[in-house]
Design a protein that fits this description.
Oligomer: heterodimer
Number of strands of chain A: 2
Low-confidence stretches of chain A: 497-506
Strand order of the largest sheet of chain B: 1-2
Structural class of chain A: mainly alpha
Order of helices and strands of chain B: HHEEHHHHHHHHHHHHHHHHEHEHHH
Helix content of chain A: over 70%
Mean pLDDT of chain A: 88
Radius of gyration of chain B: 23 Å
Largest interface: A-B, 36 and 37 residues
Number of helices of chain A: 20
Largest sheet of chain A: 2 strands, antiparallel
Distance between the termini of chain A: 34 Å
Radius of gyration of chain A: 22 Å
Largest sheet of chain B: 2 strands, antiparallel
Strand content of chain A: under 5%
């Protein structure tokens, strides 16, 4: 079947633009239609994807700007397949959630929201470094507006901080990306081209790779965020409107993790090995710091925010184990975390409604009393978040730790504590919100049908993935392995001749 | 025996002739009595002149020839820059229509000065020897000194004119001295002759020549507002009538960089090792100074003035590398800079007429909900100036950084990036004002037209709980101005162009490729 990725990519933005020009009603109709159609299209791509084939599928390749050697090249392989699906799932869910609420100047809201979906999908599908960087930077702009216009009090300083933080990294990445293209062309003597396939043919000198690596790492680490560069996170998370936060936390951080596997490890393998220890230590620090913060703060948004830092620490651990298992675990864990964090934010919103509008853990408590369905959904999400054996998150973390174990045993041992800490903060959140003494203004109420429409499918997806984690593992295996192959060979970590083939769960 | 006149290539000179003829016609028609003719026919004629210039330039687009015994040259760089000048001129005429400045200074004279200044730019960009360079520079500058002071009843306008005159003259004098020293060292006023002399006689470390180069750089830096010779920029930009500010920002900048490219990348190319590091240091300094200076500004015109200093630094990086790619990137950025700045200035002018806040950033508060047709172009312009993808500014920066890395000045590319980071802080402040702050309410200016005409009156009443409150626009409407469709249309046009060039930049790339081809000596 011929599937055109351009359709999937531009559908949301086109609907947003039509809504902006057409008026409020048009926008409200087009937004869910576009989001659901994109989801359907993504499911089609996943179903049609040939997991036995190597390399990119459904490639669109046009020379965009000949003088600069920039291609409009889109493609899907094992690395981005499930992240694309995740993006469309979360955007569809958030669209349905946001549709039930009132927004000031609604046309503009939907325009930015759908533009954000296009930008994220573009960053995931781009197979040209310049195009990737363009979409990666563009992705932030709709969130700037969504937070700045429709956010919570204190939003303007918060969102300015967020944008400056992340664009500092992104602009360094822009310089590094251009340098990569130009220097590769100079070194290889070929035509200037930013397509990944052309860049991968020649590797830059080790010293050049190293400064370029640092620029890319800065961009990705800020976007995730990881420990020393997470300064924008608390304010940013508090200021964002909830449906926006759900996609921001669920998807954008994954694009950064994906960037490491798409750009950094294949193009700069020497630098990846050179900085492996540094990256592992940053990731480890994030796991410990994120966990510690998550079980000390009482703001529920921040609990999830810090837990995301910890989870992304795990993902980076997997990537920089530079082993196929670790990388596979990282991709699986990216999908898992996205699927967990978005419903968790929706549940928080419901809890806040029931706790008199407060998002503070001290005002909650006893909310499970008359809401067994809500409590059950929350429990499933919580178990997935703490990587209960049997959940897909468990498989993801297992793979990551397996990879790290092969690479750096000491780091793996310390990282194991992160698994324990995850259960501490997740269970603390669950127990203090749902059980314990009833909060001062708390009132237990069951989930309404319209909220259930959003939450139940997401939780069902978590459960489905728990039963069948082989699906993403199997489809992504070939590409992920090749993405870290060179770095793996350089790092000297003994890798099994063949990575996990997806047949059997350990 | 009849004396034989020299051959005059009228076709090649036609864009310049059109401008000068237009300037004369506009001046004369402006003398007619009927108000309609002065207020509407004169601007229409001026607009027609700029469009005719553009049309004639397009007609001559593929010509490559030397004009007026080698004083001027028609080549890729000339034509590309002339198109930029014509676009800037046309926009200035539209923005000045119904503005205060031409009303106060007699319409014919105002538009005639704009056209003369444009003619100076054309001469400057086409110049092939230092004499026509200086001629063009003065033809450009002198009308501008007057234009800055055309709002005669406003002290700041007069101050801006005087300041520009003094500083501009210092700049011109320095440049002239530099050119004289270069002539003394090389014995030629022709660019080609200078280049030959430097190359053949190995003059690149000759003291006389180096002093000349240094003084030339200083003189040109004044015109292009390159730090540390930029101090006049914020004051003059703020004081001048806003349409004139827009004209100075985009057209003068393009002319100054045209001559930078021509003089340094062709006449002085063999001394590149000497002036390259110096210009690179200036570029880096300019980028930092401009961006840091813009941070605390609350006047939009001052903000854009500092931003124009910073952008001059970016463009200087394209001159420094001395490659075809660098030339193309600089010219590309000039074109991009034109569209995004004109979109921004059109919005500022519109808000100056609609509100009593003048060019203060608070005049934009709540624009997103009250005037989306102005809010979107301004947003796009600011994001483009900051270099956000999907806008022309991103392409421009991408091209410039690529040129610096390619020309072994990768560190300068990193400085450009650092400058962009700093610039986010103030560009985003403007965007935040448009979309995220509510429109302020003040007591209506009512019949007190003086309050509305003053550049930046205090908020009337001042206290938030004053008895009668009304949206700001009410006060401005009472002052007799109101919404001008041509400003909205200009803002929308250039805003759309900023987006289109960010998504489909190929035509512009093809155009600037011609500019690069003018430099046969570069790789």
């Amino acid at each position: 079947m011929t599937l055109h990725l351009s359709i999937l990519l531009w559908l949301p933005a086109a609907a947003g633009l039509a809504g902006l020009l057409g008026g409020r009603t048009v926008a409200r109709v087009l937004a869910p239609v576009a989001a659901l159609l994109a989801l359907a299209y993504a499911i089609l791509v996943v179903a049609d994807f040939d997991s036995s084939a190597r390399g990119l599928q459904y490639v669109t390749d046009k020379l965009w700007i000949s003088q600069l050697g920039i291609h409009y090249k889109l493609g899907v392989d094992g690395l981005n397949l499930f992240l694309i699906l995740l993006t469309t799932v979360l955007f569809a869910a958030s669209t349905l959630w946001a549709l039930q609420r009132e927004w000031r100047d609604e046309r503009t809201f939907w325009f930015h929201f759908l533009l954000a979906e296009t930008a994220v999908l573009g960053a995931l599908m781009a197979q040209d470094l310049a195009l990737f960087v363009a979409f990666f930077d563009l992705m932030l702009i709709p969130f700037f507006f969504l937070t700045g216009i429709w956010g919570n009090p204190g939003r303007i300083p918060a969102v300015t901080k967020l944008v400056i933080y992340t664009l500092v990294g992104s602009l360094l990445m822009l310089a590094a990306a251009i340098a990569t293209g130009v220097l590769t062309a100079q070194q290889g003597g070929g035509e200037l081209s930013f397509a990944f396939s052309d860049l991968a043919r020649t590797h830059l000198a080790k010293g050049t790779q190293e400064w370029i690596f640092l620029c890319f790492a800065a961009a990705f680490l800020v976007k995730m965020p990881l420990f020393p560069v997470h300064g924008w996170m608390p304010d940013g998370y508090r200021a964002m409107p909830l449906p926006v936060l759900a996609v921001f936390s669920g998807v954008l951080s994954k694009v950064a993790a994906y960037g490491f596997l798409r750009v950094v490890t294949p193009l700069f393998p020497d630098a990846a090995v050179h900085y492996q220890d540094l990256m592992l230590l940053i990731a480890l620090a994030s796991v410990l710091y994120g966990s510690a913060m998550a079980f000390t703060t009482t703001d529920t948004r921040l609990i999830l925010g810090y837990s995301s830092i910890a989870q992304l620490g795990f993902i980076v651990l997997g990537i920089f184990s530079l082993t196929p298992q670790g990388a596979q675990g990282a991709i699986l864990q990216s999908v898992n975390h996205g699927l967990v964090v978005a419903p968790a934010f929706f549940i928080l919103a419901l809890l806040a409604q029931r706790a008199g509008g407060s998002e503070d853990l001290r005002d909650m408590g006893g909310l499970a009393f008359r809401a067994p369905v809500l409590a059950t959904l929350f429990l499933v999400v919580a178990f997935a978040n703490l990587a209960m054996p049997g959940s897909s998150n468990f498989v993801g973390e297992f793979f990551i730790l397996l990879g790290v174990f092969q690479a750096k045993i000491v780091i793996a041992i310390v990282a194991f504590t992160g698994v324990v800490l995850a259960s501490v903060y997740t269970l603390r959140l669950f127990i203090r919100a749902m059980h314990n003494r009833v909060g001062p203004r708390a009132e237990s109420r069951e989930l309404s049908v319209r909220d259930g429409i959003v939450l139940v499918p997401l939780v069902a997806a978590i459960i489905a993935l728990a039963f069948y984690p082989q699906l993403p593992l199997h489809k992504s295996e070939k590409t992920v392995t090749s993405s870290v192959r060179e770095a793996n060979a350089l790092s000297g970590t003994p890798a099994p001749a063949q990575a996990f083939t997806g047949g059997k769960t350990p | 025996m009849t004396p034989k006149g020299p051959h005059i290539d009228w076709a090649g000179l036609s864009p310049l002739v059109a401008l000068l003829a237009g300037a004369t016609v506009v001046l004369l028609v402006g003398l007619l009595r009927p108000r309609f003719i002065r207020e509407h026919v004169v601007p229409a004629l001026a607009l027609l002149t700029t469009l005719a210039t553009a049309g004639l330039t397009i007609w001559q687009l593929d010509e490559r020839k030397s004009l007026v015994s080698g004083a001027l040259a028609l080549d890729g760089l000339s034509t590309t820059l002339t198109l930029i000048f014509a676009a800037a001129g046309a926009a200035t005429v539209v923005l000045s229509w119904r503005a205060v400045a031409p009303r106060e200074s007699a319409h014919g004279e105002f538009y005639s000065l704009v056209l003369t200044s444009l003619a100076g730019m054309v001469v400057l960009a086409w110049a092939q020897n230092t004499v026509s360079l200086f001629l063009g520079l003065e033809l450009l500058s002198i009308p501008l000194y007057v234009l800055c002071a055309t709002e005669m009843r406003r002290a700041t306008s007069l101050e801006a004119g005087l300041k520009y005159l003094v500083i501009g003259s210092v700049g011109s004098a320095t440049l002239l001295y530099g050119l004289a020293l270069i002539y003394g060292a090389t014995g030629s006023t022709q660019y080609a002759g200078i280049a030959r002399a430097i190359g053949d006689r190995g003059l690149s470390d000759d003291a006389l020549l180096l002093t000349g180069i240094a003084l030339t750089i200083v003189g040109m830096a004044f015109k292009a507002s390159v730090a540390p010779f930029h101090q006049w920029t914020p004051d003059v930009y703020e004081g001048a009538p806003t349409p004139v500010t827009a004209f100075m920002a985009v057209a003068t900048k393009a002319a100054a960089f045209g001559v930078f490219l021509r003089f340094f990348d062709s006449a002085l190319i063999d001394a590149q090792l000497t002036w390259g590091p110096l210009l690179a240091a200036l570029a880096a300094f300019t980028i930092i100074v401009g961006n840091v200076g813009a941070l605390g500004q609350s006047s939009l015109k001052r903000l854009l003035a500092y931003s124009s200093v910073a952008q001059a630094g970016y463009m200087l990086a394209g001159v420094v590398v001395s490659t075809k790619l660098g030339v193309q990137a600089t010219v590309f950025y000039l074109a991009v800079y034109l569209v995004m700045n004109l979109a921004a200035f059109a919005v500022i002018i519109a808000r100056e007429r609609e509100t009593v806040l003048g060019d203060d950033i608070s005049a934009l508060n709540g624009l997103g909900s009250s005037r989306p047709a102005l809010a979107w172009p301004m947003t796009v312009a600011m994001l483009s100036l900051a270099g956000i993808p999907a806008t022309a500014g991103f392409m421009g920066k991408f091209f410039l950084i690529e040129a610096t890395v390619d020309g072994n000045y990768a560190w300068l590319g990193v400085v450009i990036v650092i400058g962009s980071m700093i610039s986010l802080a103030y560009y985003l402040r403007v965007v935040a004002a448009i979309w995220m702050r509510d429109a302020p309410v003040v007591a209506p200016a009512g019949s007190d037209a003086v309050a509305a005409a003053a550049p930046r009156p205090a908020l009337a009443g001042g206290s938030p709980d004053s008895a009668v409150q009304a949206p700001l626009t009410a006060g401005a409407d009472a002052a007799g101005s109101g919404r001008a469709w041509e400003l909205t249309a200009t803002a929308m046009l250039f805003g759309a162009a900023t987006l289109v060039l960010g998504i489909v930049p190929q035509p512009l790339f093809d155009l600037v490729a011609r500019a690069g081809d003018a430099f046969t000596n570069l790789v």
